[in-house]
Amino acid sequence: MSTTHEVFTEKSLEGFVTLLKEWPNSAWGNVDAEYSVSPFISFYFPADMENHAEISLRMVDIHEEFEQLIGAPYTIAIDSEAARPYRYPRRRPDLRAQARRTSSSDYFVFSFTDEENHATSPTHAGYFWRSWIETDDDLKTAYSSIVFYYRWQWWLDNRDAWRRFVLKTIDLLGAHQVYSGFAMANPLEFGTRGAVSAWERSLTPHFYGLDIEYAYSMDDELLKGIRPPTWAFLLSDHWREKLDLTREQVREALDHPGIGITELRSGQWIELGEQPELYPAKSGVPKLPRILNQLLKPIRNDDLGLLGFGQWDGDPNERFTDADSRRWLARFDADSDWPTPTTRWLPFHPLPSDPVPAKRLPSAASGTPCLQDGWWFVAHRPYSRQAFKQGETLPALPAESGDEQVIWQLDTDQTPSRHASSGEPAPREGRWELESDPYTECTRQLNAPLPYHEYRAVRWRWTEGGTRARSGELCPWPGTWTCEYRPGNDQYLEYKDPMPTIDGDKVLWVWVDLKNIIT
User: Is the Cα torsion angle 392, 397, 398, 400 positive or negative in sign?
Assistant: First the structure.
C-alpha cells in the first residue's frame, strides 16, 4: 500500500478511538483493508548453533497446540519454502521436515492467519520467526520470535487455558522476553506496515495501554534492552540479573494487591491486574504500569526503533520520530510529558465498575522453591492440595509429562481439612477413621495419600489422638465416653480402665469432652 496519501482522516481517528473505548478489540478501515487493535502475546527467545533444530521443532509444536486451543480457525498460510501465501488446510506444509533441513545460517519462518485479505489485520494469527545464527563473534544474533493474535472475547472465555499455554511455552522456549496486552494487529503482508505505523502514532497518545509489537524490526533491538510492558511480562532470570536483583527483591518491589507474580523455572511472570487494559489517556496515567516500569527502567532500551519502514519528506502521515519514540517508551516515568504536558497530569480515575483488587496470592511452577509455608493446590487438579514449607521444591504431579509443568497456588483457606477421600494427600498427620465405619482406621503422615478400602474410594475423617479408643484398649483419658453409633451407652471410665464392649460387640468410644470438636 502506498502511503503518499493520508491513511485516515481526523474524523476516522476520532471514530476509531471511540470504538476502542467501547470495545478494545475493534477495527477501522474500508473495502481495501481494515486495521484492528487486538490482544496479543509475543515470545522473544535465543537460538544458537547447538539448539537451532530443536528450537525450530518446538516452534512447530507450539503452533499446533495454539491452533487447537483457539479452535483451528486458520485459512491462509505461508512458510519458508513457499513463494506466496496459500490456502490452508487445503494445503498442509510439512513444517517438521522443513525445520530439520533448515540450516542454522538460514531463517526458519512460517505464518498462519484467518484473514484472506493479506492487507487486513487478522482476527487470529500466528507468526513464527527463527532467526539465522551469526557465526562472527563481532556480530549479535537477533532474537527469534513468536507472535499470536486472538479475539478478545475468546481470551475472556478461555483465560485460564491461555495462561497455562503461555507459562508452558515460556519454559519450553527458554524465553528472554514475553509481552502481552493490546497492540495493532500486523497483517500478513509486509507492505502494510507503513499504514499500521501511522495508526500507531495517532492512537498511542489516546491510550497508555496500547503497545507496539513488530517483531520483524524489534528482534535485534530487544537484545539491548526491553520495552515498557503494559500488562503481562516475563522478567526472565537473564534480564533480572542485569537489574542486580534477586527474585525476592522483585516481589518486594512489586508488592501491590493488583500485581500477580508467578514463579517459573526461567523467570517471573508478572501480570498487572486481572486482564489487559487500553487505559484511555483522559483517565490519567495508570498506577500498575508505573510501578513495574519504575523497576524495569534500568534495562529499558530507550533507542528502540518504532518507525517501521520509516518516514520520508512529503509523507502526509504523522509517524514516530526518534524523539517521539523515546517519549513514548518513557511514558510511565514520573518525569514524562507523554502525550502532552497538559493531559499528563490528569489524576488516574479507574472505571466506577472496577472493584478494589484483592491481594493476589503467590503462585509458582513445579520445580521451583515454595515461597512460603502453607497449603498449596493446583487449579483443576483434584486431590492436589498439599502442605509445603518455604524453600521446599514444589513437585510435579504424577500425570505431568516431561515438557509440561503445573502451577501451584497458595490456598486462600489455610485451615487443614478434617475430611479427605481415598487418593488425596492427608491434610493432617495422625489417625484417620472411615466415615461410614469408624472402627476402620489408618495412620498417615502429612501429605501421604489416604488409602482405598476394599478396592473402593471412601471418605476418611481425621481424629485427634487420645480422644477415641476401641473396645479392649486401655482408656487414655478419665471421664465420660460414648459410642456415637450406639447411643444411650455413655460410661464413666478411669485412666487405663479397659474400654468395654456393648452387648458383646467391639465398638469405637469417643471422649465426650471433645465430641463437639471432632464431629
Answer: negative
Identify whether residues 116 and 64 lie together within a single domain: yes
- Do 284 and 378 fall into the same domain? no
How many helices and strands in the chain, by DSSP H and E? Answer: 12, 24
402 and 329 in a common domain: no
DSSP state of 125: E
* Strand duo 259-263 + 267-272: pairing: antiparallel
AA letter at 213? E
Within the chain, what is the greatest distance between any pair of CA atoms? 106
Query: Could you say which of 391, 415, 439 is where a domain stops?
Result: 415
Which of 344, 370, 394 represents a domain boundary (last residue)? 344
Is 302 found in the same domain as 409? no
Judge whether 16 lies within some domain: yes
Say whether both 394 and 326 belong to one domain. Answer: no
| Domain count across the chain | 2
- 225 and 173 assigned to the same domain: yes
Distance CA 408, CA 92 (A): 38
Q: Is residue 246 part of a domain?
A: yes
Same domain (yes/no): 277, 410? no
Grouping H, G, I as helix, E, B as strand and the rest as coil, residue 318 is coil
- pTM as predicted: 0.81
> Within this chain, do residues 254 and 375 fall inside the same structural domain, yes or no?
no
DSSP string, 70-115: TTS---EEEETT-SS-EETTTS---HHHHHHH--TTS-EEEEEES-
Q: pLDDT tens track of the chain, all 519 residues?
A: 445 678 888 999 999 999 999 999 999 999 899 999 999 999 999 988 788 899 999 999 999 999 999 999 999 999 999 989 999 999 999 999 999 998 888 899 999 999 999 999 999 999 999 987 765 554 557 999 999 999 999 999 999 999 999 999 999 999 999 999 999 999 999 889 889 999 999 999 999 999 999 998 898 899 999 999 999 999 999 999 999 999 999 999 999 999 999 999 999 999 999 999 999 999 999 999 999 999 999 999 999 877 555 556 677 888 888 889 999 999 999 999 999 888 776 665 554 445 556 677 889 999 999 999 998 988 877 778 888 999 999 998 875 544 567 899 998 878 888 788 999 999 888 888 888 887 788 888 888 999 999 899 999 888 765 577 889 989 988 888 888 677 788 889 998 899 999 988 888 888 876 444 334
Buried b (16+ CB within 10 A) or exposed e, 50-87: eebbebbebbbebbeebbebbeebbbbbbbbeeeebee
Cα separation of 398 and 408, whole Å? 14
Report residue 424: phi and psi, to 5°: -80, 150
The answer to whether residue 352 is domain-embedded is: no
**Domain hosting residue 113, numbered range:** 10-344
378 grid coordinates: 493446583
486 in a structural domain: no
Give, in degrees to the nearest 5, the angle at Cα 391 between 357 and 254.
30
